Each structure stands twice: as C-alpha cells, then as structure tokens.
Amino acid sequence: MSKARAASDVIVKLIVGAGQASPSPPVGPALGSKGVKSMDFCKEFNARTSHMIAGTPIPARVTVRPDRSFNFELRTPSTSWLLLSAAGVELKKGKLKGAPDSKTIVDIIATALGFFD
Fold this sequence. Notes:
Helix content is 37%, strand content 23%. It is built from five helices and five strands. The protein has helices at residues 2-6, 27-32, 38-48, 79-87, 102-113; strands at 10-17, 57-64, 70-74, 90-92, 95-97.
C-alpha cells in the first residue's frame, strides 16, 4: 500500500508574488518536503511571470511526480485582489487602507464589462 501511495503525483498549491519567488518560506519548505529543488522552481516561475506586474499574488499549482520532476500551472490572481487594485486601494499589513465606495465599484465593473466605451 505504501508503494502505491508513493507512486502517485502530489499537488502543492502556492501563492507567490510575480517575479518574487525565492527558496525561502513558503516556497522552499513546501517543495523541499516533496523532494523538489526549490531553486529550479523559482527560476522557472520568475521567468514565466516576468511580464506581469511585480508582486502580483499569483496562485500556482505544482504537480510533483514520483521521480521528483515537476510541472506547474499559473492561475489568475483572486478577484478581490484584482478589484482592490483596480480601485486603487492598498493593502497594508493585512488591513485595508481606505475602502472603495459603491460608486467606485460600479465604475470598475462597468468599465470591465464595457458599458462606458
């Protein structure tokens, strides 16, 4: 039973800033415990996110195979982060610095949907 369990792929979910992956926590320990060289992941992640705005939180889904090779797919940032950045609201130490009012939110949604083109 343990051989069958060891022979399956393992999925690791991470949220890393675009272009800011480093072998320090949370990336290093999460991948190191699965036997993946975190520096290889960091180089490839930073190369694939180099065209994005630096620091954008990008969810990554890393699939680790039994032979310790890996591949990963990048997801889009969370909707709340996209709305807050479009509204110009800054997050400071986990707390909102100012809050968008309902008019700002309606303007963002209308612009995204193309109502005011």
